[in-house]
Design brief:
The complex is a heterotrimer of chains A (about 775), B (about 270) and C (about 160).
Chain A: H1 13-18, E1 36-42, E2 48-54, H2 56-59, E3 64-69, E4 98-99, E5 105-111, H3 114-121, E6 125-130, H4 137-142, E7 155-159, E8 175-186, E9 195-200, E10 206-209, H5 215-226, E11 233-236, H6 252-264, E12 268-271, H7 274-280, E13 284-295, E14 301-313, H8 323-328, E15 338-347, H9 361-379, H10 383-390, E16 399-400, E17 406-407, H11 412-423, H12 425-438, E18 442-452, E19 466-473, E20 479-483, H13 492-504, E21 511-514, H14 532-559, E22 566-569, E23 574-577, E24 580-586, E25 596-603, E26 611-621, E27 627-637, H15 644-663, E28 695-697, H16 716-732, H17 747-763
Parallel strand pairs in A: 1-12, 10-11, 14-15, 20-21, 27-28
Antiparallel strand pairs in A: 1-5, 2-4, 2-6, 3-5, 7-15, 8-13, 9-10, 9-12, 13-14, 16-17, 18-26, 19-20, 19-25, 22-23, 23-24, 26-27
Helix pairs in contact in A: 9-16, 13-14, 15-16
Chain B: E1 7-10, H1 14-24, E2 28-31, H2 37-42, E3 50-53, E4 63-66, E5 69-73, H3 78-83, H4 85-90, H5 92-100, H6 104-109, H7 112-118, H8 124-132, E6 135-140, E7 143-148, H9 149-152, E8 153-155, E9 158-159, E10 166-173, E11 180-185, E12 195-200, E13 203-207, E14 214-215, H10 217-224, H11 229-233, H12 250-266
Parallel strand pairs in B: 1-3, 2-3
Antiparallel strand pairs in B: 4-5, 5-10, 6-7, 6-10, 8-9, 11-12, 12-13, 13-14
Helix pairs in contact in B: 5-8
Chain C: E1 2-7, E2 10-15, H1 22-29, E3 48-51, E4 54-57, E5 70-72, H2 85-92, H3 102-115, H4 121-127, H5 139-150, H6 153-158
Parallel strand pairs in C: 1-5
Antiparallel strand pairs in C: 1-2, 3-4, 3-5
Classes of the chains: A alpha+beta (about 775), B alpha+beta (about 270), C alpha+beta (about 160).
């Protein structure tokens, strides 16, 4: 009886439910005894020269041990962007010369007790010489006000040639429509904000507890910014309270906590407030997109162009390079004969943009799915039909797109058909027609999205995607797994135990999973880009299988038999001589003399491409503009489902975040770059009342890229749900002439769109 | 995210609380449930040096009928108000309003006195009290004075409560069986109203349409003159200067006021 | 100031600053770190505990306000090593992923069911509007609460 594919409850849960997870702020460790508390004074202005930072009054406040400014940290290496970006866009870990966004740290205050920090911070006096703030995409590209003077421009990078578009791209099209749409800035807002703790040893190594998505990457980042070799940095990863792409690597604050610990010769700790999290943790998305789509009136799409301006925020972080992924996925699941995509990344006086669930791919799907609906509206065809006519037909051999992506397996039409059936699409259209005929003030909208996305990417051609795992069986019948992944809610302890249990016959609850400690696991790719199961899980399975072979040799010697004559009985977790069950030896006993441990590396041939289709059903109150999300029905096909409980959880979470972007959440700045949504009271974080229970339909199209047949599921939900919900809102109002509403479709935006079409009708 | 330092005294009686207010003047603030005051203090938008806790004074709790009024102790938590059989029977708009404040945890702590003293123009209870034509009993050195809701909210987060007074009780007329309407438009659960409307007995109160909770006088007059709800509601935003924020601009707020007033007048909640 | 609180059934006396938030008292003084601080504006509910049996956001209660009163945290729910029915339901329905919101969510659920032992789905969602979760999309949390209600957790919690 295989355990794979079954709903195994999480072994992690009892601890989380009773004593609670141990997050970085919770860590009690004798190495951190006597830790001082680190606080960051942050800029209240979006763009300014720093004239002076006076910490003298703060130093007199109760409990203040020290205070530091940019000048004190001037010997730390500069933070340089990766080579694809404008090399002049460097910055200091703690700026001494200028600030570039509200929330950027400008001074550090260190206190004995946590409660003393805020009191002391108020006494730090910073003199700013304000500069004009560049807040929107358009004015950033104008280059009238520069964030980095030496760079001579606010354009950090260009993808393709935005000035050399193919002017003949749409020549054969009977119908062409174009629109500039916004994929708005959102806040990842994991429930656990950022934190850090650090202490230096006599040996010159720093041990740092940092919530992260990959300890090895955090180790590298911290080392680089401290001017150390990676071996001098020991990262320990406590429980992590969510990350969603925003906890990769090391942030300036983490570097400064470590620096303070070294400077003061004692351990140092930091926990950020939610305000800090909402202004200084990287944000997500923030692309301005111009979509142009053309084709024939019979529904065939012939050409599509995507032009992107990526807001990078004030610093070059992951966000600045995301257009690369957006462009890679330009054609999505469709057969589009001619397509092109270009992008510019610009810096602005706002919070830097990082990765956020989907990281570049939701942006591609959102643009494409809007374009498909715009095209459908233009030719007066049902949006489901338009999609069906243009989706790539089923393929089982890898399919290379003109954008260089090699889709492994896909059956997009089946996904669409399945979700339409599950949603009762025809009945929904009927109900919509009835409401329209009655002139109901509450309009029904049905929105679709078909998507394909890239998971498990690896680092490019030179470094194919891979992950390591170590499996060890102990004489007492328990087992330990070391993984290079970095779970923060995904349930790897249970999932990896299932995979190993399948091979070794050891019960799931007898496994211990270890990760995130660079002394224990020096190599690893972390968790992100939906890579963990396909690479990390495959590695665990492979290690367990290799361990059986190592054990087989020992068993053969024990049983004085030929290894080839031995059979491993998973049910008993024992080797037996084939045909003679009494001649057996338990697996665990083979660990008594020598450790029974195997480390392996699983290498994948390439990235995999999960896909799906979503249907969203909304009601829009045409008097107030309020949107109520009634149903979301999805097909998210990521190949084999190892544990349906965990897979569903990932889909639910992704769907909720995707839907939230479509109709509720947004980060807002005023014209001076002041953040207006810097608390959970102002940032419209999704609550339980805004979403319904979701309806998940099942489909499993295996990949051939790993023995399990799995692709990545973590981000799929957010990629499909955003356009489905946005399209649903617009669909609800299409009979009133509405063709587009930018996200989020807040009540006011919806109301304005209705007024605009009303006004158009009146002037016509 | 944590308040500036302060001293704390648990008042032994309302008179003791008044003594302390007298002694500390504008350095002191009264604390009941703390769910208007403490959030402000945590953001350091308020920095009193003394907190006088009146949250557990028996004299300030309790709900009773007194003639044609309900008398509600100022330190009554929203949850208690919302579930009170007496209030649900005789002033259901008030019970309903209390049930809309924040979320269950907030309702377990926040009090009606605290909410009224805080006087957030976007809040539920100030609007409800105004619609009901209720009043507050203000206890001072010289005894109790009663101030009607129409006179109580004097400015943006300001009331006629003097520095040396405390709200002892809230009074609302008993109107068992009378129809009422309540509309609270939010972008997301747990939010303050983008615009709110409460209507009962010919009175219409608006939340977040100005610096104080407002009466929609023009709409009320129209109703009194025999106009239907839709017609009267068209005047709901007259003479209002609502603020603008991330949720709504002036035009949209005015539009919402009209729509929600019509709904409050026609959809008996 | 000296305060005396009964925390998870054990009475204790401590010397605290008036401004010490109850959540920090529980975490730093009592060593009970299941309740988490997730926001600055009394919005997210990760700090939810029971104060005299009713759910409150402990980030917005001063320790001194809770003087002489009873606090129950997630650590105090389970007895004899068994999971409380609400905790068991959360596990059964996969109502937690990263776990950061979970103790608060569980305590809010205990509070909700003690006041409404058999809520509808809508009542569950509204009852938890003061508890934010980023991981689960709330779907399985709702299932967990309904399952706990089905198992009679409300009657037990109210006792």
């Amino acid at each position: 009886m295989s355990i794979l594919g079954t709903r195994v409850l999480r072994t992690e849960d009892p601890r989380f439910l009773t004593s609670g997870g141990v997050y970085t702020e919770d860590v009690v460790d004798e190495r951190l005894d006597g830790a001082c508390h680190v606080f960051f004074v942050r800029s209240p202005v979006a763009h300014a020269r720093i004239l002076s930072v006076d910490v003298s009054a703060a130093l007199e406040a109760p409990g203040v041990i020290a205070a530091f400014t940019g000048a004190d940290l001037a010997d730390l290496p500069l933070v340089k962007p990766s080579p694809m970006f404008n090399p002049q866009m460097t910055r200091s870990v703690l700026p001494a010369d200028k600030v570039r966004y509200v929330g950027e740290p400008v001074a550090v205050v260190v206190t004995e007790q946590a409660y003393q920090g805020e009191d002391a911070m108020e006494l730090v006096d910073v003199d700013y010489d304000p500069l004009p703030a560049v807040v929107d995409f358009g004015s950033a590209a104008d280059n009238e006000v520069l964030l980095y003077e030496e760079a001579g421009t606010n354009v950090a990078a260009t993808f393709g040639d935005p000035d050399a578009l193919d002017e003949h791209l749409f020549d054969e099209c009977e119908v062409v429509t174009t629109r500039t749409i916004l994929n708005q800035r959102v806040a990842p807002a994991p429930m656990e904000s950022r934190a850090g703790a650090a202490v230096w040893g006599e040996d010159g190594r720093v041990t740092a507890w940092i919530p992260n998505q990959g300890a090895q990457g955090t180790q590298g980042g911290l080392a680089r910014l401290l001017g150390l070799k990676p071996e001098q940095v020991h990262i320990i990863t406590p429980d992590v309270g969510g990350a969603f792409g925003a906890k990769f690597g090391a942030d300036p604050e983490h570097v400064m906590v470590a620096w303070v610990a070294r400077q003061l010769g004692r351990p140092a700790r930091w926990t950020e407030t939610r305000y800090e999290n909402l202004v200084a943790m990287t944000h997500g998305r923030a692309q301005l997109q111009t979509v142009t789509i053309g084709g024939r009136r019979d529904g065939t799409v012939l050409a599509y162009r995507l032009e992107i301006i990526q807001d990078s925020g004030a610093h070059i972080r992951i966000g600045a390079m995301l257009p690369f992924l957006t462009i890679l996925m330009t054609p999505g699941p469709y057969e589009i004969p001619r397509a092109e995509a270009v992008a510019r990344s610009v810096v602005t006086n706002t919070t830097p943009i990082g990765a956020y669930r989907g990281a570049g791919r939701p942006e591609a799907s959102a643009a494409l799915e809007r374009a498909m609906d715009l095209f459908a509206a233009e030719i007066g065809m049902d949006p489901a039909e338009v999609r069906r006519r243009n989706l790539l037909p089923k393929f089982t051999e890898p399919h290379r797109t003109k954008f260089g992506a090699l889709y492994d397996t896909g059956d997009y039409v089946a996904a669409l058909d399945k979700v339409l059936a599950a949603a009762g699409y025809d009945e929904l259209r009927k109900e919509q027609a009835e409401r329209r005929a009655r002139g109901d003030a509450v309009a029904l909208g049905i929105g679709l999205a078909s998507y394909v996305e890239i998971t498990g990417m690896g680092d490019g051609e030179e470094q194919p995607p891979q992950e390591n795992a170590t499996v060890e069986v102990h004489p007492d019948g328990t087992a330990t797994i070391l993984t290079g992944t970095s779970p923060h809610g995904q349930g790897h302890a249970t999932a990896w135990a299932m995979l190993a249990s399948e091979e070794l016959g050891i019960p799931v609850d007898k496994f211990t999973l270890k990760w995130g400690d660079t002394d224990l696991v020096p190599e690893g790719g972390g968790t992100g880009g939906s890579r963990s199961l396909q690479h990390g899980g495959s590695a665990v399975r492979q290690a367990a299988q290799e361990l059986i072979e190592v054990a087989r040799e020992r068993a053969a010697s024990e049983l004085e038999a030929n290894p080839a004559d031995l059979r491993f009985d998973v049910g008993r977790s024992a080797f037996e001589v084939a045909g003679d069950p009494d001649a057996s030896v338990p697996l665990a006993s083979l660990a008594e003399e020598d450790r029974l441990v195997v480390r392996t590396v699983f290498t994948a041939p390439g990235a995999t491409f999960p896909f799906g289709s979503h249907v969203a059903v909304v009601e829009v109150d045409t008097e107030t503009g309020k949107v109520v999300l009634r149903r979301i029905i999805t097909v998210d096909d990521a190949g084999f489902v190892l544990n349906p409980l965990l897979a569903e959880g990932q889909r639910h979470g992704g769907i909720a975040q995707g839907a939230a972007q479509a109709f509720i959440e947004e980060v807002v700045y005023d014209a001076d770059g002041n953040p207006l949504t810097a608390s959970f009271a102002d940032y419209p974080f999704l609550s339980a009342t805004e979403v319904p229970s979701f309806e998940l339909a099942e489909m499993q199209t295996l990949t051939t890229y790993n023995p399990l047949g799995v692709k990545g599921i973590g981000e799929a939900g957010s990629i499909g749900a955003t356009p489905a919900v946005q399209n649903a809102v617009i669909d609800a109002l299409s009979h009133l002439g509405v063709r587009h509403i930018d996200m989020p479709t807040s009540p006011q935006r919806v109301w304005r769109a209705l007024n605009a079409t009303q006004a158009e009708k009146e002037t016509a | 995210m944590i308040p500036a330092p302060f001293d704390y005294v648990a008042a032994q009686s309302p008179a003791h609380a008044l003594d302390l207010l007298d002694r500390h003047g504008d350095e002191a603030k009264l604390l009941a449930g703390g769910h208007s005051l403490l959030p402000m203090m945590k953001l350091r938008l308020a920095t009193p040096s003394v907190l006088i806790d009146i949250g557990r004074l028996a004299e300030l709790t309790g709900i009773r009928a007194e003639g044609d009024e309900l008398v509600i102790g100022a330190a009554t938590p929203h949850a208690v108000l919302a579930s009170s059989e007496l209030v649900r029977a005789d002033a259901p708009l008030l019970a309903h309003s209390a049930a809309q404040v924040g979320d269950p945890q907030i309702r377990h702590r926040g009090t009606i006195g605290g909410s009224l003293a805080h006087a957030d123009p976007a809040a539920d209870l100030p609007m409800a009290l105004l619609a009901l034509g209720g009043s507050v009993d203000l206890l001072g050195r010289d005894g109790t004075r009663n101030v009607v809701a129409d006179d109580f909210f004097t400015g943006f987060f300001e009331t006629s409560l003097a520095e040396d007074e405390l709200i002892a009780a809230v009074r609302v007329p008993r109107r068992p069986g009378q129809g009422w309407g309540y509309q609270k438009f939010v972008r997301r659960a747990n939010d303050w109203a983008v615009v709110g409307v409460a209507a009962v007995d010919g009175r219409i109160a608006l939340a977040n349409m100005g610096s104080v909770p407002l009466r929609a006088h023009a709409a009320e007059r129209a109703l009194a003159e025999g106009a239907g709800p839709a017609e009267a509601a068209e005047l709901a935003a007259d003479d209002t200067e609502p603020s603008e924020d991330v949720h709504a601009d002036r035009d949209y707020r005015r539009h919402l006021a009209r729509v929600l007033t019509r709904r409050a007048l026609t959809r008996r909640t | 100031m000296q305060v005396e609180l009964t925390v998870n059934g054990r009475r204790r006396t401590d010397e605290v600053e008036p401004r010490l938030l109850l959540v920090h008292y529980l975490r730093e003084v009592c060593g009970l770190r299941a309740a988490n601080v997730g926001c600055d504006t009394t919005s997210c509910g990760a700090c939810t505990v029971l104060l005299n049996g009713t759910s409150v956001k402990s980030c917005t209660v001063l320790t001194v306000q809770a003087n002489g009163q009873q606090v129950t945290t997630a650590e105090g729910l389970a007895s004899n090593g068994d999971l409380h029915p609400v905790q068991a339901a959360f596990r059964q329905e996969h109502g937690l992923q990263c776990g950061f919101c979970t103790p608060g969510m569980v305590m809010a659920t205990v509070g909700l069911l003690s006041e409404n032992p058999h809520p509808t789905e809508t009542e569950v969602r509204e009852g938890l509007e003061g508890n934010f979760c980023r991981c689960t999309g709330y779907h399985n949390i709702v299932r967990a609460v309904l399952a706990a209600a089905e198992a009679g957790a409300g009657a037990e919690a109210g006792a």
